[in-house]
Amino acid sequence: MKFSGFKVIKEALTGHKGWTPLWRDPEPQSDYDIVIVGGGGHGLATAFYLAKSFGQARIAVLEKGWLGSGNIGRNTTIIRSNYLLPGNEPFYEFSMKLWENLEQETNFNSMVSQRGIINLIHTDAQRDAYRRRGNAMRFAGADSVLLSREELREKVPFLNYDNARFPIKGGLMQPRAGTARHDGVAWGYARGADMRGVDIIQNCEVTGFKIERGKVLGVETSRGFIGAKKVGVAVAGSSSRVMSMAGMRLPIESHVLQAFVSEGLKPTIPGVITFGAGHFYISQSDKGGLVFGGDIDGYNSYAQRGNLPVIEDVLEGGMALMPMIGRARLLRGWGGVMDMSMDGSPIIDRTDIEGLYFNGGWCYGGFKATPASGYAFAHLLATDRPHDTAKAYRLDRFAKGYVIDERGAGAQPNLH
User: Fold this and answer.
1) Given CB 3.0 to 4.6 Å as the disulfide criterion, which of 43, 258, 282, 372 pairs with 292?
2) Tens digits of per-residue pLDDT, 338-368?
3) Hey, how many other C-beta atoms are within 10 angstroms of the C-beta on 30?
4) Pair 292, 233 in one domain
5) Start and end of every Rhodanese domain (predicted)?
6) Domain boundaries, position 287
């Protein structure tokens, strides 16, 4: 089934009787050439690009729950490529370019909206740092604009510019950044992969790996053993648990990241805004809800829920930035489990076990990286070589000293 404006009109006039399921619900085969563990955004994107861009066949995606039940459906939907370091910026700019063509590639409305992102400046030193970041972005082919206080006030006049502790002095803007519909991204990639023959198997939990003589032969699942020539793991916050079944200990901690949405309001926030003096970021959904978040919970957890102190901290950041937010009623909140790496940057690499590949450690950056992560992981699985933009995301960089410390927080996952 192809989507088009004509199709929508036809179904509206014929009682909507021609819509079909977006993907099949197949039984697992006894073996595949490639098995992807994890049916989130990264796993589905990997399967899609394996089939579409690299001509691979006999692929399965195994998801322990339903599609969209993990972090792909539990985030604040921001897409951007405003990074500084050479190990990160080209990768995220590659992802940004894939976002810009995603809906045409998948023939699915993922509601990609390039409304821009503004990182606020509160000190002279921060202006210097953002000027440096903006120049690095331009060197990598991305877009950036340094806004003065007056230019910023024209775009977002409702901010607390004269806050006694955190006066706003300007901002760094990436006009091509914005938001996308998180579950729409998952559904689009799932549909696109299914159309190309990928088996998407839900309610199929991986319970172990079959490894002999240093080579992976397949996975044990809640629906029986499934053989595979190659296995790619992309399970976000469950990375440490899943990879421990293969005898591996990862340089990753799992923490909860909470997000929130307010009641529906009239259009207020033009794009995405981030607080430069605290960890708070906000945008507005098409339904009118203010979508915002902040820091991760400070303790390790695999639970998809958070605690009250972080809720209070996030709301305090919002009040300091825009006091008007205090008049909005909080509608709901949720938590996603973040796989926090030791330097705040991801891993896309082969493991020491032949045929076993790992994609994880995305910290806060997982959603915005979805297209490039899927493409780079597919490239690695298909060719056994890292993609040019992902060469720095090696698993052994922590042992060999090639860390990518974007935030400059050191080897403390809870601070990234």
Assistant:
1) 282
2) 999 999 999 999 999 999 999 999 999 899 9
3) 9
4) no
5) 34-78
6) 113-178+253-341
